[in-house]
Amino acid sequence: GAFGLFAFSGRPDHDRARADLCDAVAPHYADDWWFEGYIGWSYAEAGALEAGQRRLLRALALRPLNANAAHALAHTRHDRGEVDAGRHETETFLPQYDRSGTLNAHLAWHLALFALERDDVAAALALYESRIAPDVSRAPPLNTLTDGASLLWRVMLRDPARPLPWEEVAAYGAERFATAGLAFADLHAALLEAVTGRRDALERRLAALDALLAAGRLPAGPVVPALCRGFAAFAAGAYDEAADLLVPALPDAARIGGSGAQRDMVEDTAIAACLRAGREETARTILRRRFARRAH
Q1: What is the mean pLDDT of the chain?
Q2: Model confidence over 72-93: pLDDT tens digits?
Q3: Residues 52, 43: contact at Cβ < 8 Å?
């Protein structure tokens, strides 16, 4: 999936590769509830949102208590701009799903994104405090780090003056992801280090990423340190520098892995940097590309 071998391979086309693999083995999985969910999400992440959503709805009809399909359906609703449907489906599914389930906190993160799409920052932060924060989440460490950091960052983009609980997520990242090398984690750890003033930790991470890149051991390539430096510049209020780093990196952002919904944060930050640097036309261009990808 979004944290799988293809996603973390550094390939820019990992979403398409995953869909192609599903197509190759599909004849062996007729009427299989798990496969319907997996191919549906693969299609949607590769841009075939309508076809993907059809497969996901079928997967849930075959097995309603299917957290992977419910999660993937939240992704398609997000990417199609179908906020009310996504909110309703996720809120309906979550009470049936054990809090210890791997995707429980991440589904709450999707609910928080739907809340932000409605400009309901208070609801998003309530979900953070009750289900997503490190001290309450039962998700795997990578989800705990990235969901917490990215949600707080998205709130900060909308409401820069609001006090946010950065320290608790930053401390979690410092404990669990101190060593650089996993691109998706590095971006989130770096933004936390920048926001909380952990300058030495940030410099160590950037130096380690540069060394891995020079040694040919950073699969995602130069986009990783570029994004980390761009987010650090934004956190420091250096919006021209942030725009200079983030806008050229957008075509390669998929190399860091994760899902389209997760990588939206990179695009959001590039747009915000452009607006704050007075580059309105560049911001409009990025937005037009985003709207062209969405069905709604």
Answers
A1: 96
A2: 999 999 999 999 999 999 999 9
A3: yes
111 contacts 94 by C-beta, under 8 angstroms: yes
Q: Which residue has the tokens 């709130």?
A: 155
Exposed/middle/buried for residue 157 (C-beta within 10 Å: 0-12, 13-18, 19+): middle
Q: What is the pTM of this model?
A: 0.96
Q: Average pLDDT for residues 117-129, to the nearest whole number?
A: 97
Name residues whose C-beta falls within 8 Å of residue 241's C-beta, 6 or more positions apart in sequence: 230, 233
Tokens found for residue 132: 């997503």
Q: CA dist 111 to 14, 89, 99, 118, 291, Å?
A: 26, 10, 15, 11, 21
Angstrom distance (rounded) from CA 174 to CA 57: 39
| DSSP per-residue string spanning 251-264 | GGGGGG-S-HHHHH
Q: Residue 287 has which token pair?
A: 């937005």
Q: What is the DSSP string of the chain?
A: -TTSTTTTTT-TTHHHHHHHHHHHHGGG-TT-HHHHHHHHHHHHHTT-HHHHHHHHHHHHHH-SS-HHHHHHHHHHHHHHT-HHHHHHHHHHHGGGS-TTSTTHHHHHHHHHHHHHHTT-HHHHHHHIIIIISTTT--S-HHHHHHHHHHHHHHHHHH-TTS---HHHHHHHHHHH--S---HHHHHHHHHHHHHTT-HHHHHHHHHHHHHHHHTT--TTTTHHHHHHHHHHHHHTT-HHHHHHHHHHHGGGGGGG-S-HHHHHHHHHHHHHHHHHTT-HHHHHHHHHHHHHH---
Count other Cβ atoms within 10 Å, centred on residue 114.
Answer: 25
CA-wise closest residue to 1 among 266, 176, 127, 184: 184
Q: Do residues 1 and 7 lie in contact, with contact meaning Cβ atoms separated by under 8 Å?
A: yes
Q: Give which of 188, 227, 190, 185 is closest to 205, Cα–Cα.
A: 190
110, 74 Cβ separation under 8 angstroms: yes
